[in-house]
Amino acid sequence: MADRDFYLRIEAMEDYSPVEPDPFAIPPIQYKRDGMHYMGHPMGVIPDAERDARALRAVTFREYQDADYLIPRTSKLVHADINEPVWNHRVPGCVLYAYVGDNVRIHVHNADNRPHSFHIHGIEYGIDSDGAWPMGTQAADGRRSDEICPGKSWTYIYQVRENMIGAWPFHDHSSHASHGSSKLGLFGGIIIRKRPFRWPIPLPLPERFPDMVYKGLKLPLCAPAKKQAKPARRDPRTPLRARLTRRQELLLQNQYEDLREWLMRDLRLRFWPRPDWNTLHVPFFLHQMVSDQAKPAFDSGDMEENGAGTFDHTFDDAGSYEYFCAYHPAMTGTVNVVSGAPATATVNILDAPAMGFYPDSIDVAPGGTVTWNNLSMQHHTVTSRDGAALVTHCINGRGFVGNTPTIIARAGQKIRWYVFNLDFGHEWHNFHPHNIRWELAGENHDVRSVGPAESFTVDTVAPPALILPEEVAAIQDADDRPPDAEKVRLMGDFLVHCHVHHHMMNGMIAVVRSYKDVWLTESMKETLLAEGRIQLFDDSNPIPMAEMGYCDKLSPGTWEELEVDPEVTFMHACLLPDTNKVLYWGYTRADQSRLYDPPGPTVAEPSPQPAALPGMDSDLSDLWSAAHAFIPDGRVLGHGGFAGPGGNYVNAFVFDPATEQWSQTGSTAEPRFYATTLTLADGRIATIYGSASKSLEIWDSASGTWSAPVDFPAAMDHHQYYPWTYLLPDGRLFIAGPHDPTHRFTIEPIGGLETYATIAGNRSTGGEKGTSVLLPLRPPDYAPRVVVIGGNTAPARKTAELIDLSEAMPAWQSLPDLNLERAEQVNSVLLPDGHVLVVGGANAVAGGGAVELLDADDVASGFTLGPVMTHHRGYHSAAILLADGSVLVGGDPNSDVFERYLPGYFERPRPTIASAPASAAHGATITVDSPEAADIVTVHLLAPGAVTHGFNMSQRIVECAFTLDGAALQVELPPNGNIAPPGAYLLFIIDDQRVPSEGQWITIN
Known about the structure:
- Strand 40 and strand 41 (705-706) form a beta hairpin.
- The chain folds into 6 domains: 3-193, Immunoglobulin-like; 203-221 and 241-273; 280-287 and 397-546, Immunoglobulin-like (Sandwich), CATH 2.60.40; 295-388, no CATH class; 558-907, Methylamine Dehydrogenase, Chain H, CATH 2.130.10; 919-1004, Immunoglobulins (Immunoglobulin-like), CATH 2.60.40.
- The longest helix is centred in the N-terminal third of the chain and has 26 residues, at 246-271.
- The protein is mostly beta strands.
- Helix 2 packs across helix 3 (246-271).
């Protein structure tokens, strides 16, 4: 019998967090990750606050190599685990190995500040080595085997026999073990094997082994030169690999890898009686970790699912009490204890619409009682935030994929699992590796339960990363391999976890990363990637970044080409109130304008056209590059226009949707070519800049006349053509570009000038490239945020910026870049679900290029690509939202065709508006009936568009607060005209899947 001594020291680790065991880990090790993207872990990142809530003062058995505890054993517990922390940051602290026939002595020194002991399972010992309080023994100097006092030691003696082969846990069994030392990490395992078992070591190859392989293969070392009688003389001092062609080098490298694999697998198995040399040994501990200092003010403990779990708590003192679920920490709630509230209250724990507490905020009187019912299909807790700590369900001292073990294994390689359950609570765990099976009692299994302090050993093999298709399998043999095939390393991540749902959700889940080298041609590789059949090996230790709620998210939409001849260029477009018709016009001609009711097959011509009005002709009435805005009664004002010889500088016209006719109104005093015109809070219409004018004029619908021009300050002279101008909720105007700097100011009188320089500077050098949009105004403060996008100057082409004008010191901030350069005229359209559609202007791609979408509620995530337009749209193109929520696009350089964009919500069932008033006043509360009222989460008012040259002078979204009243919504309209200028709006209701209804017209006056 051999004597084997182990030296264990009980040591503490302060601020140990199972989700970040080592804050200074060196890549590829990374922590604070959750590859399953569970609730509360956006983008797979565990927040710092949760990291801290899971932290504890851990205690471990740490192994040393000497009796003085000076030299720690630093080798890894699991050699194949890429995530394992360094020796002084890991739980468990050690795993011991012994052979049948060993006399084992385990010397335990307690360096902690509490008493502990050492109790082992499965091997033979006397009562002096049991370590279980109070059944131990006591030495003459007062030391006890079952209670090692701080600073003291005890030696435990064991004999290892044949019937003890297996994996056995050890842990603290002192009187203080009831405090939960196993939940602090004070445990480990011993693995007993037969001789001549050898533990896995890397296969040593000579340093010059690759060159030896190359020489043995006897390949030509250089290509023979043409017309050369004798082979080229080689300098023997030149390194062998330096004399190879690239193709030869790749071939030899693959041969080398094949030979190494053969040595690791076949040669060892045939000629060395030590098959375990090619086996991965994986000690796998299932357990919980939680601070023993946690003392929550109230805690339900584990609540059974499906109505079986209830919890009551009485709140004596007034105040607010926050609580959460320890298994799902993103689930939170609040109890408000206030005088006058009910004496009792009930909270239900539900799985839908989102797993949580319903209601999540409840009022109860002092001395009142709250009852929680777990109606979910999952286990939960109700745990006071005050004094609480989070429990982590761990594997090897760590929780959640990306932190827990990631076992790197070659497909088909043997894995020997030593599975331990060191969770001494009332719940069992089980062991379930995906795509892995083993035989037990004549049956095949892939799940095995394991009770408290139970352990077992099972041999499996790493699963295949790919089941080879026939055509791929056929070229794996060198004789059948195409010359352009190359070896590609594939990988697959297979989960290993406890299948108890809330254990897995709370971190008890790991990964086997199986890899395989496969010969593929480039076309095979591209096909398999496109079909989603393979994943290329990534040595950066990634976690999956699959999009959460992928199937719940809307598709990016589709395009359709409309079977209609536009007849004139779609340069200017206005959506006419109380209709689905679009009024549009283009270049100089007597029949300049058209009406279109999408997606119909024909367009109509208004009569009379402006050119047919008294005293007009096609030059004097030319609305090419004019300005336009909506009159509160729904009519359209268009004025100014092309400034060529004899052209329309000052004339103005009104289009009436009810009669579909044009009429003339008063002319401006100054020329307005490329002017911007917008409706003010009182219904008057202001026009600014255009031509050489640097002034403001205001049109009054009652008189049909314009006010005298008022000049802007000289500091604003750089604004000229189609300035991107918005009416703000405080009544001021803001010019966002396209020229720099931007300005906020009052107009009656003009003054209070504030200047804000952009980051990119000017976004257009002519023709007014780029675009801008005012993001949705949301109650209660209606904070105005403005975005500018694209442009033809170098810094602007692929960039976007945002300014929040509600801030005390507003400043332009960069947004993530666009996916495509938008250097031509690009349009931005507000969609009723709160996204901004960016369309056209991409001159560096074939066809029309892909549209892009910006989520107004998540601008930091930037622009996502949508479907590709068939036709290119650039200068003198337009895009406008229709009443059904689709977008009509047309104009140059393909002015003979319309396209229609159908956002992703067209693929979903849409909520409906059964009834709503046709008109109402600012600040009124209106009733909107809908069969889907209970599902509605947002109500939007969307002003109809009036767009040209990439800028929509009219569009804006105003969100409305509302309350649910049975099958109706009580909707509060915006309080004044600064927020919602008087006029027609489309009313949209949006459900909890972010799907809007079709718009219904309502006039706010």
